[in-house]
Amino acid sequence: MPLTATRVSLGAEPPSLHDLHGSFATIHVGQNKHPFLVHKELICYHSDFFRATLDGSFNEAENNVVDLPEDDVEVFKDFETWLYTKKLLNVKKVTQKSLHLIKVFIFADKIRVLGLKNATLDKLRMRATKDHIAPATPDAIHYAWENTAAGSPLRRLLTDIFAYNVKPESAEEDILAYPIEFIADVTIVNMRRLPIRLKDEIAPFEHDATSYHEHDSSCSCCSGSRGPETAEETPQSDLDTWGDWSFSKKGKKKKGDVVAAGVGN
Question: Is the pTM of this model over 0.90?
Answer without folding.
Answer: no
